Amino acid sequence: MTMQINVDARGRGDYATVQEAVLAVPDYSAEPVTIFIRKGVYEEKLAVPKEKTNIRFLGEDAYETILTFSDNAYTPDGEGKPMGTFRSGSVIVSADDFTAENLTIRNSSGPGTGQAVAAFINGDRAVFRHVRFLGDQDTLYTGPGRHYYADCYLEGDVDFIFGPATAVFERCRIHCKRDGGYLTAASTPQDAAYGYVFLDCTVTSSPAAENVYLGRPWRDYAAVAFIRTWMDASIAPAGWHNWSLPNREQTTRYREAGTRGPGALLADRVDWAKTLSPEDAAGYDIPTILQGADGWNPLTAGQDQPKLSARMADQWIKDWDSIGEHPRTSNKWNYEIGLFLKAVSVLEGLTGQDRYFRYVLHNMNQFVGDEGFIRTYKLEDYNLDQINQGKLLLYLWKKTGENRYKQAADVLVKQLESHPRTAEGGFWHKKIYPHQMWLDGLYMAMPFLTEYARIFDRPELLDEAPQQLLLIDRHNRDPHTGLYYHGWDESRSQEWADKETGCSPHFWTRAIGWYAMAIVDTLEHLPRQHPGYAPVAAVLNRLAEAVVKVQDQESGLWYQVTDQAGREDNYLESSGSSMLVYALAKGVKAGNLTPHYLEAARRGYHGLANRMLRKDGQGKHHLTSVCLVAGLGGNPYRSGSYDYYVHEKVGEDDLKGIGAFLIAMALVEAAGA
Question: Tell me: the pLDDT tens digits for 538-557?
């Protein structure tokens, strides 16, 4: 059995620092030892000595598990002398068979401070998956040995991937932060057949950057190959630089094949670099490059199989369009698209895979124009559903820093600031549904508004979400079952509204699921010291207790009409079940629910996987038993009766279902499905 050590900066693990955990690993371990690192910023200069073999760092979140330090080449050492480049690393790995997954390694010395290494990898058979390497000059120093980097992000400005290693970078994003930068500075030994090999990667630069070079030779015989790599327009037409040492042109081994994009100007490359034929390029395969004398193959050495959530996301994304479009994600700004893209962004955060970020970016950019214009959105509709997709604006602003995403988010906040309200201040679900609060509207708007308030320092907005969530708890909660009615009409004028309570007549599982997700996602961004945090967390606990009581014990799922198991025409419904699984798992993860609720989430996970996925004749999976739509009032009029809910249309692969399914599966998998 693999040994696991847990690290939590908040003191809830075996150790509070990563270095303590490393030192606790037995010397020269023949079996892998996993050090699971919870989200947090670990500011420590971290060393993995050569005797600490077979260690695996596993981060909880690629963006929020951060190993960082700020040394640079000029930082004084213990004797007051500059420590130099090689000792400046934030993380220095000297052991063989080291693996890191799903975390960030950063040198925070900053631009203009000279050589400042984020990671110095000085062992053999090193593997990095979904790791972000952040720095400026000399970000990643690849010492002697064989390394494999998959689905990683590497940034810097000058020579930020350098050293003598034989290293494969597969599906990585390489990002240059300045004009005239250099991606690589290889010092490949003369007898090494391969140096750096970039396979199916993406090369980008900061806006307006120009004359970025793919590499320059740190030593004679430097070897770098870019195979099937997309390059943006920042790449200098010449491609390669000789470090102002013409004699190195005779020994340097610079290669390209299948290069694509605006920077793929192969005809303009320096004449001492080579474009490979398809036959020669085919020889650049991972087992051949990295096998060495011991036959090492990182593709089969200790890699877990992709999780169900990632497999399903990849299938659906691939099926819909080769460039990442689906008719229902491109025709109109709406909440369904928002939920699905939110799920993809969650997968990106959990896996670190850049393709998920690119998918979200591509689809969102179909809507967001200059100065925050949002195609098809109308503020004057005052529709809470239209806020949900705004969560991706905040995600993209944090990822890219582009002001148009903030400007678009500002527009949505303006809607909420002037949105029609009940007498107590509750948001109407839509202008066309006056005086009505629906459970789903709070998911659409409250997590967005709370996160916006935190990011952009608008503390006066933080009171809004607790107020709205507690109003729903006051009006929509049934005191006998603890479940929540779909809608509440302040005016009692709707046919569906009870004349005493104002509530709709039945419990609809997806509506309860929306509300549960609204709570856990709001709590994620609401400061724990906020006076509304504890009351909302208490609502979550009452809700969790109520929904687990009506969870189907055989399947682990929930019925369309929540409390009517066994009644004619009622059925197990996948989207609402997914939402409740997600809320339970996230509540436990945040410490707001006790661990036994994770078992309920796991039962739901397996029910979804085993009962709700249909495999067709081509081997593709489809999510079944999704209620396509349900509401209250309108034209034709929706009564909220039992017969209404169980006879609304049911289908497959609806975006609401898929989005909820993906985030539910991903969170339970992260907790150990």
Answer: 999 999 999 999 999 889 99
